[in-house]
Amino acid sequence: MNLSSKFIKHRLAALCFCLPLIGITAAQAANVTCSPGSTCVTSGNVDSALTKEQARQEKQQWDETNKLRSKVNSRTEKEFDKIDAAFDNKDACEKSLNLNAYWEPNTKRCLDVNTGRPLANP
């Protein structure tokens, strides 16, 4: 037996031993489940009850988060509108031709100097 055939025989035996191990790791990698926040690539039709339940829960969480965001946004918008209206009222009060009108910064209203009552149209 020459050196090259001995070399081929040992390499072939090592290859036959390693191939099943490579197949096992590939099979294990295919069975890994996707965790939230990870990127998973699947091929074929994956339609299990677990994935449907996970999708339902994620949709429910998204809907709840979206509702909370819209509530926060509407509250912020209302507060902005109040502040914006106060600035407009202050400008109108200060530019008023009525000499008895003055702006009260604590109440954010245009008041009459003599009576202290709010002016409807300064």
Automatic annotation (TrEMBL):
Keywords: Signal
Domain of life: Bacteria
UniProt-listed Pfam families: DUF1283
Signal peptide bounds: 1-29
InterPro entries: DUF1283 (IPR009700)
Family affiliation: Belongs to the UPF0482 family.
Record protein name field: UPF0482 protein OO7_09517
Source species: Providencia sneebia DSM 19967
